[in-house]
Amino acid sequence: MGQRLNRCLDVPVALPPLRRRLLLLFIMLFLWLYMFYSCAGSCAGLAARGSPAPPRAAPPGEPGEESSLEEQRAAPEAASPISSFFNGSGTKRLPQAIIIGVKKGGTRALLEFLRVHPDVRAVGAEPHFFDRNYERGLAWYRDLMPRTLEGQITMEKTPSYFVTKEAPARISSMSKGTKLIVVVRDPVTRAISDYTQTLSKKPDIPTFESLTFKNRTTGLIDTSWSAIQIGIYAKHLENWLLYFPIGQILFVSGERLISDPAGELGRVQDFLGLKRIITDKHFYFNKTKGFPCLKKAEGSSKPHCLGKTKGRTHPDIDQEVVQRLRDFYRPFNMKFYQMTGQDFGWD
């Protein structure tokens, strides 16, 4: 048997015993790695063929659209078979916390900042499960989630949930203990930002001023326009409070997320029951973009700012229209402050 093996491996019989053993060990290791790589590749192929379809894309311009194509491309790609093997420990779980809103409030920034924390694992792209893909079922939704170890939190963010009438009941049905995060921003600034995003995709849309009013002469605000409607935060919150206690919802200030990101992240980490790991040392202020960036992004040693779709220059809006919008939102803002116990300083 030994002679036959020597002939197959072409090992000289006269080779010293120690060297022969080392050579045999090296060859056996090589064969083992070859078999392992082959197996991992075929297993990944089978898994890919049986994987669920990606979330359905929203029609262009659909109200509540938040995630740009650039952000979708920036979402984590599928890992290679080998890295999947080494990183495949853990379990796919339904999210324990969800960033439910609001569009153009700062949800992408919050999620990117949170992903620096070692105990937070989040989906890159917006799943839109509770508004667009609910019929696919919880098993489909769970399969979108990253694997987590014991003690880690699974998260996702889809800002359109906040204004989706069915979302609160659906999330409560999944888990009444789900922690909810809402990033809010001055509703007038938010509406202009929302319009700016749409304008970048459809340059021929009517002016902001003309879309704001049903009748500009009478000054009647068109609340059916999604850019206006989303900012009536108190109205949407009432729907959520039918299913979740106010203490289970954290309200993050979009303005303070820019001026004091570490302070707001401290509140979020406390709310999620996480150790305060993300601090001032993780941020620097980018004067060109006008908002904070990460000194080191998740899984990288390089600084990271959000993409070019964030921090767009807003068009000049007639100040009379801006003032009318402020007057319109004021009573809703006051009610929102009372409901949340927080004064966001928008007036």
TrEMBL record:
Pfam families xrefs: Sulfotransfer_1 (PF00685)
The keyword Membrane belongs to this UniProt entry's keyword annotation: yes
Recorded GO CC terms: Golgi membrane
Superkingdom classification of source: Eukaryota
Disulfide bonds: 293-305
Topological relation to the membrane, as annotated: Single-pass type II membrane protein
EC number: 2.8.2.-
Keywords for the protein's UniProt record, in alphabetical order: Disulfide bond, Glycoprotein, Golgi apparatus, Membrane, Signal-anchor, Transferase, Transmembrane, Transmembrane helix
Gene3D superfamilies with a match to the protein in the record: P-loop containing nucleotide triphosphate hydrolases (3.40.50.300)
GO molecular function, one term: [heparan sulfate]-glucosamine 3-sulfotransferase activity
Sulfotransferase domain sequence ranges: 95-330
Cellular compartment(s): Endomembrane system; Golgi apparatus membrane
Chain positions covered by the region annotation Disordered: 50-74
Active site: 104 (for sulfotransferase activity)
Classification via SUPFAM superfamilies: P-loop containing nucleoside triphosphate hydrolases
Ligand binding (3'-phosphoadenylyl sulfate): 104-108, 185, 193, 310-314
Composition bias, Pro residues: 52-62
UniProt family annotation: Belongs to the sulfotransferase 1 family.
Protein name: Sulfotransferase
Species the sequence originates in: Pipra filicauda (Wire-tailed manakin)
Lineage: Eukaryota, Metazoa, Chordata, Craniata, Vertebrata
Gene that specifies this protein: LOC113985113
